[in-house]
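Subject: FAD-dependent monooxygenase

B.,
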Amino acid sequence: MRQSRVLIVGAGPVGMVCALALHRQGVPVTVFEQEAAPVKDQRAASLHPSTLALLDELGVAEDIIPRGLISAVYRFHDRVTGRVVAEFDLGRLADELEFPFVLQYEQYKLTADIARHYATTPDFDVRFGHRVAVIEQEADGVALTVEGPDGPQRHAGAWLVGTDGGRSTVRRAAGIAFEGFTYPERFVKIATPFDLGAANPDYAYRNYVSDPEEWCNLFKVRGEDGVPLWRCIFPTGPEESEAEAVSPERVEARLQKLHPQARRYEVAYCAAYGVNQRVAATFRQGRILLAGDSAHVNNPIGGMGMNGGIQDAMNLAGKLAPVLRGEADESLLDRYSRQRRHAAIAFVQAQTIANKKMMEERDPALRRARFDELRRVAEDQDASRAFMRRAAMVESLREAALVD
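Prediction pasted inline below.
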């Protein structure tokens, strides 16, 4: 092999965690990101207990926990009646989880943290404002033509990891199919500094509000500079355009329906985006590997996308490093593909699709039945623990590790 450097395309949380995990094992990495700086895209913001445990292995968890919001409790609500359907408290799993809570911490902050504190040497080289234009796979490595501030440059590496999102340039260059479907509606994310938790004590830091007409995900983050924000996710209507969805009138109407008040809401940001449920046909093609949204995308109900991607990154780094050192055969990377693809399909895809169906159920009888079952699970100690393990992605990690 001509060299051991790993090239990573995409400096989001998955790419940066993968780079840090490889760097910790003595593997030189170069990360290319076409954006000029970490993008404050305000999407993923929940780090589950299983992911926090992995970040703790890298020494990251202790730095970010004081700067996030600790959320042990999450609640399911019936918007029609205004009642809490069920509550789950991760604190009940304190006997088996190192971190029995979800940390509300926006993904762009995690990316910036790693770039600022660790990407400071030639062996951990992060290049923002660099777009990958050409990808060439060779017998003993990969070569990229990258367009940056100094013009086109060629970079060579032993392996290439694509963490460049759902529209991945790396995945497309490898010719890997992205199997699944796109939802007909878009999702609208709205953030407001208005304290919805104070206005409605039934709201925990994380809430899933079921409604046959317009369900809502509602959760709290610290926001920029520590200013608290409540982030709300709604579906668009059947005939609602993106422009209509983010218009001041529709944004105000959605927030007023969530919690009526006499004055208009202050809005920190608002965006509409398309949502897919897709998984790559394989996470490895020769010397090209995929992780995170490049490998799988899903709806955000349950906060599993970024977490699944970080778990990809840690699994991949744990296998790629020994391959580079000559301690393991390259076939170990096929096992990475099988393990993480299984986790994506059997857990993340299955759970997020089921979550959405429950939130938007229109049939009154089915809604009652699902709420009754959710109450039964919440009230049963063993059933609630099993439910929380799955929601916290503990089970997906355990089961994926058993895939040969």
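Residues 6-68+107-182+277-401 form a domain with the FAD/NAD(P)-binding domain fold (CATH 3.50.50.60).

T.
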